[in-house]
Amino acid sequence: xxxxxxxxxxxxxxxxxxxxxxxxxxxxxxxxxxxxxxxxxxxxxxxxxxxxxxxxxxxxxxxxxxxxxxxxxxxxxxxxxxxxxxxxxxxxxxxxxxxxxxxxxxxxxxxxxxxxxxxxxxxxxxxxxxxxxxxxxxxxxxxxxxxxxxxxxxxxxxxxxxxxxxxxxxxxxxxxxxxxxxxxxxxxxxxxxxxxxxxxxxxxxxxxxxxxxxxxxxxxxxxxxxxxxxxxxxxxxxxxxxxxxxxxxxxxxxxxxxxxxxxxxxxxxxxxxxxxxxxxxxxx
Length: 284
Description:
Blueprint: H1 2-11, H2 17-27, H3 39-56, H4 61-75, H5 82-112, E1 120-124, H6 128-139, E2 144-150, H7 158-165, E3 170-176, H8 180-183, E4 189-192, E5 196-198, E6 201-205, H9 208-217, E7 222-225, E8 231-232, E9 264-268, E10 274-277, E11 280-283
Parallel strand pairs: 1-2, 1-4, 2-3, 4-7, 5-8, 7-10
Antiparallel strand pairs: 5-6, 6-9, 10-11
Helix pairs in contact: 1-2, 1-3, 2-4, 2-5, 3-4, 4-5, 5-6
């Protein structure tokens, strides 16, 4: 099951990182059904399988932090028996999964508070946390106009626009990310989700950097909404970009030139107004 989850996670390239973190955490519980001769063997297996899960999506900070926490809390202090280690594993996984799911909702609730009634927002790609923030604000009686930009070439953003169109008091419009400058001067905020923030760099779906740079030129504040586990100062995590199939950019063979298809881009945090998390708001 863990091997299958590693393969599944490697394919979940358009899914929320919180979904990936939860799937990976829950996969480790399978170790409770295996036989181990010693505590050392159990811990080594936990470390090896956790490492495989992390490598499946090296760009996901929340996957890294949750897996690291599970291994650390199960192995330190060392369990007195394999049975104790297995019991501790189940307890820690339950706590981690609950916190991941709770953090997402709390970040969304905090994000909803920044929207005033009648605000115009631009958001990019598909972020379930941003979507929940908008839905929460609308449910609270606020009317919002939302521009949704696609992350080309996979047309990410259409799912977001379709969902927003079904929410009362939300008027949604879809446009390409390259057209962001056409509407940004009408917007009160740019609000996006995040893959992660590492030091002074914000990583998110490709197209975020030019939107943030254009917003800065037009004095439109850029806010990021996401779980605090995605904000990393240190601890060994190093972001690795994903390069998807070039056939998504053009189907016919490229003759005489190269094609590149990065999944994420890097935005300097000085272009951000704030990062709204479950633990509060970080100002930049």
